[in-house]
Amino acid sequence: MSRGRKKLPAEPVQAHIESLSHNGRGVARVEGKVTFIDGALPGETVMFRYTGRRRSNDEGCVLEVMNPSTDRVAPRCAHFNLCGGCSLQHFEPGAQVEAKQQMLVEQLQRIGKVEAQQILPPLFGPRWGYRHKARLGVRFVKAKGRVLVGFREKHSSFIVDMQRCEVLHPAVGERILDIATLVQSLQACRLMPQVEVAVGDGVAALIFRHLEPLSEEDSGRLAVFGEQTGLHVYLQPKGPDTVHLLWPEQSQLSYRLPDFDLEFLFLPTDFTQINSELNRAMVRQALALLDPRPDERVLDLFCGIGNFSLPLARLAEEVIGVEGDAGLVQRAGENAARNNVENVTFHIADLTRDMTKASWSAGGFDKMLLDPPRSGALEILPQLAELEAGKIVYVSCNPATLARDAGELVNTWGYRLISAGVMDMFPHTAHMESIALFER
Fold it and tell me: Is the pLDDT of residue 3 over 60?
């Protein structure tokens, strides 16, 4: 016989919020048990209702803020309380970054057992309309009798009934309702689960995922929408390799790094940083920390389309970029040729395996830069140590794996953690981008 789920208390409960969790929820202790509360900020006293109970912790959401934090602000987005796209719009932007900086310091100490000699000032960029990449869910909701396009609700697979998005680039964020109306007008409206967004410096593109071939009429409606709005329209009938342009006849997305006189071309499905202004500041800081010299050989791991490799090549004698995705390596090489950068070469490699025997690693490196995925770079740290670079700059999208890897570099492989800091790549979300400098 099934025991069933434990019934949640119906009455509101009072709690004092002690801190902020890694995913942006207030942390309280209620009857001695850790409780994560959506919409609460450190220092506040709130009334909340339970939304879940587990053996190790409970969850809840704010009903009333009895003693608001001085850092509490009114969310700009009308959908904030429901949408899962942002979790911190009620938190003053500067305070958001301070909290993330403190979280980074704590994780370095707790997970990596290391401390940076210097905490770098945070890097800031635009806080609204900054998001140049996104995947929007699409769903025909029978109860509403219409199509919804947007991010998913918090802790749910439902699509938020939204009209605009304040963090998406305005070319798309101000047209959410228009896109939903467009999809609803299609014969295939129930067979279109996703719209992907990719924005360059001068072009915004939408990729419409469709589960069955589109009729000529549907394709025509999509093309007319592109012509009317200026948005470039791509179709994706199956996997990522099936993405193709519908309108206009030619399309090219790009972004510039003016400090280094570089322009990068990319496909709408390529990985690029979502906040282009912050990316420019990040590249400047990474190169300032690494300080490549004209007589030095530099290795750039997880190099993508060359976002760091090409600027490095402007300053170093030689740069080697390595990436596991063949398409990105191809684009990196094309970007080098387009920008007349001749002292950089790109290679495809599985960076979870031994790279010290690869031909491109012969001769070693003076300095290294790596920008790994969320899982970090634990598997390759022994190889980095064997290559004996004097400096390593580590760019991270996950402070927990950065802290873990920092502990290995310092406590096992003889490096010192010189400096570390956060970069406000994703304002109003709990996501943290950070950077660290290690020296042997």
Answer: no
